[in-house]
């Protein structure tokens, strides 16, 4: 048994790979053998192993688990003293239950442990807890972060915390460089229009190359002087519209109009919207206005005569709510989900926006928090540039809280939010 995690996994598979997931799902639970346990104990405590005589203080156990998880995982063995002698635990079933409770209730985010009970011929039993650190950073429920250094754990100080968390921050999909993109793929008019919004003396192309501006000023490209690798964010924001669907086909958006109240009704028209984000925003908004009215004030009620033709009237929506919901869909979609696309469906009395968003990790508290503007931005660079007026979209921004509040005031009906199957859905009702 190695002194690192994933001892029961195929050795050369990534823990998140589909092959490994299928393997683990179809395999029975494997127990730690006595020989593996003895080999671990003989080596003594280190960065990836902690030995405990018993489980007596849940708070300290939680701190130890957090420290191991934040240091790339490890093992805690209960029933071994400081002299590396096996004393066993008197109630291993209770120890297992308590460890599960600690991992679920006293650690944020909750941790799923692997727990084994190993019995010896003498009748003594020990409990081994394997800790996985793939979703770090972890903290205790009172907000403390711990790391393990050798055989000791240490709390991360507030001065060190920001640096450490910054190092842990995973590379977002928007930051992935694309090697097939060239400088000629970018819309210089859009790029330099954005730059001139901040500086009237923005350098023209003959003095300052597009590649240098993207790499040095906007941090949307990587590479040295001879190399130029723009990121996904750079392509979505500033590439030529005709090139975006070739470079990033997953960025296409489907907009459809149905004659009814849901997606099972008859389809009237559907289009695939391609291009950079500015082009997509303007194209989608134009399609929506073809079938509904967008107004800044609630329309006044009018008398309807019985002789009026019986026909479905055009619904009216709050302009800023629809515009902001559309902006949120374009900048917050999870582009790492290749098979799920952004879809916008227009019904007789509602507009539904469906966005790819990984359900795993998006807990019920997080889904409630976004209603109050507490978001977890997947694409911070895209959001920062797209929501600037210098980019070309001049509308007020208030996020999802504004969409929910204003559309409810406008139509008298609260929007509906659904989060399931890696999709985030918002349904806004019209007048």
- How many alpha or pi helices? 14
Main beta sheet: strand number and arrangement?
6 strands, mixed
Strand content: 15-25%
Strand element count: 18
Helicity, as a percent range = 25-40%
Architecture overview:
This protein is an alpha+beta fold. It is elongated and about 85 Å long. The chain has three domains: about 20-170, Schlafen, AAA domain (Methyltransferase, Cobalt-precorrin-4 Transmethylase, Domain 2); about 180-245, no CATH class; about 250-300 and about 310-430, Heat Shock Protein 90, CATH 3.30.565. The chain starts with 17 loop residues before the first helix and ends with a strand. The chain has helices at about 20-25, 35-40, 60-70, 90-105, 160-170, 190-195, 210-215, 230-240, 245, 275-290, 320-330, 365-370, 380-385, 400-410; strands at about 50, 75-80, 105-110, 115-120, 125-130, 140, 145-150, 150-155, 220, 230, 255-260, 265-275, 295, 315-320, 340-345, 350-355, 415-420, 425-430. The strands form six sheets. It has a six-stranded mixed sheet. Residues about 1-30 have low confidence and may be disordered. About 30% of the residues lie in helices and about 20% in strands.
Brief characterization of the structure:
The protein has 14 helices and 18 strands. By secondary structure, the chain is an alpha+beta fold.
What descriptors fit this protein?
Heat Shock Protein 90; alpha+beta; Methyltransferase, Cobalt-precorrin-4 Transmethylase, Domain 2; 431 residues; four-stranded mixed beta sheet
């Amino acid at each position: 048994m190695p002194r690192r995690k994933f001892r029961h996994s195929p050795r050369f598979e990534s823990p998140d790979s589909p092959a490994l997931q299928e393997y683990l799902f179809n395999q029975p639970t494997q127990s730690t053998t006595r020989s593996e346990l003895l080999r671990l104990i003989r080596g003594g405590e280190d960065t990836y192993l902690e030995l405990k005589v018993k489980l007596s203080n849940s708070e300290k156990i939680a701190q130890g688990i957090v420290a191991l998880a934040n240091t790339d995982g490890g093992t805690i063995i209960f029933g071994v003293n400081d002299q590396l002698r096996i004393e066993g635990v008197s109630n291993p079933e209770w120890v297992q239950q308590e460890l599960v409770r600690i991992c679920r209730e006293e650690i944020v985010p909750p941790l799923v442990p692997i727990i084994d009970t190993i019995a010896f011929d003498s009748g003594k039993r020990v409990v081994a807890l394997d800790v996985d650190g793939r979703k770090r950073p972890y903290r205790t429920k009172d907000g403390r972060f711990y790391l393990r250094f050798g055989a000791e754990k240490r709390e991360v100080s507030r001065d060190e915390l920001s640096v450490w968390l910054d190092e842990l921050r995973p590379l977002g999909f928007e930051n992935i460089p694309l090697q097939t993109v060239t400088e000629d793929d970018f819309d210089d008019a859009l790029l330099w229009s954005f730059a001139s919004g901040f500086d009237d003396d923005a350098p023209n192309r003959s003095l300052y190359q597009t590649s240098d501006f993207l790499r040095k000023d906007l941090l949307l490209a990587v590479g040295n002087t001879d190399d130029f690798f723009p990121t996904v964010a750079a392509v979505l924001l500033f590439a030529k519209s005709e090139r975006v669907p070739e470079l990033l086909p997953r960025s296409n958006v489907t907009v459809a109009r149905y004659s009814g109240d849901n997606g099972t009704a008859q389809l009237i028209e559907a289009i695939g919207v391609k291009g950079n984000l500015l082009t997509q925003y303007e194209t989608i908004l134009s399609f929506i206005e073809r079938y509904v009215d967008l107004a800044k004030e609630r329309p006044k009620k009018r008398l309807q005569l019985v002789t009026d033709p019986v026909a479905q009237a055009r619904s009216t929506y709050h302009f800023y709510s629809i515009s902001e919901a559309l902006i949120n869909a374009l900048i917050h979609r999870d582009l790492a989900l290749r098979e799920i696309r952004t879809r916008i469906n227009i019904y007789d009395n509602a507009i539904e926006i469906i966005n790819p968003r990984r359900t795993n990790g998006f807990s019920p508290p997080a889904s409630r928090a976004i209603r109050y503007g507490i978001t977890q931005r997947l694409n911070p660079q895209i959001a920062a540039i797209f929501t600037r007026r210098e980019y070309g979209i001049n509308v007020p921004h208030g996020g999802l809280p504004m969409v929910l509040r204003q559309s409810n005031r406008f139509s008298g009906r609260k929007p509906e939010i659904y989060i399931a199957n890696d999709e985030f859905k918002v349904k806004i009702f019209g007048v």
